[in-house]
Write a structure and sequence with these properties.
By secondary structure, this protein is of the alpha+beta class. About 45% of the residues lie in helices and about 15% in strands. It is built from seven helices and four strands, in the order ααβββααααβα. A four-stranded antiparallel β-sheet has the order 1-4-2-3. A hairpin with a 2-residue loop joins strand 2 and strand 3. Helix 4 crosses helix 6. The longest helix has 15 residues. It is globular, with a radius of gyration of 16 Å.
Length: about 160
């Protein structure tokens, strides 16, 4: 078995993390026009790194996380924060406690809106990565290296 292609991808990860962390953070609400379309992004508050994501439509994806009109499907990070703030942390695939049901709960909806507002004020860093395999590996690598508390990589 030849694992050289995998090792070649993995060897690029530390350099990409260094580039990501060296970037002057932008505001989630005011993204630079030079933001690449494909890559990995990192949300932080002060020096606390919170969440890593990846996208092939990165500017739109990052904006959605903090947009007041984004749905629970578009703002997954905000949904995680709202679960934490409301104490409704256990995901379920039954009607009771489902995402759909939570979005009918006025208290939860308020927490969700507050989470999106919080995210809109966060710092965001990003690094271009067009290769799908490296993009996936980089997301996991950054989350593990920075111990981002809102990335769990659980299967659903």
């Amino acid at each position: 078995m030849d694992d050289a292609p995998f090792r070649a991808h993995v060897e690029t990860l530390p350099g990409s993390l260094t580039k990501l962390l060296a970037m002057t953070p932008a505001s989630c609400a005011l993204l630079p026009k030079s933001m690449p379309r494909r890559g990995v992004y990192l949300f932080s508050e002060a020096s606390l790194h919170l969440y890593v994501g990846r996208s092939n439509r990165m500017p739109e994806r990052v904006r959605n996380h903090g947009s007041s009109i984004a749905t629970h499907r578009q703002a997954a990070f905000a949904f995680k924060l709202a679960r934490e703030m409301s104490g409704k942390v256990k995901a379920t695939y039954k009607p009771e406690g489902s995402r759909k049901q939570l979005m009918l709960d006025p208290m939860f909806v308020g927490e969700f809106l507050a989470a999106k507002l919080r995210i809109s004020g966060m710092q965001v860093r990003f690094v271009e990565e067009a290769d799908a395999v490296r993009q996936c590996l980089l997301e996991v690598y950054v989350a593990l290296a920075l111990k981002t508390p809102y990335n769990d990589f659980d299967n659903h």
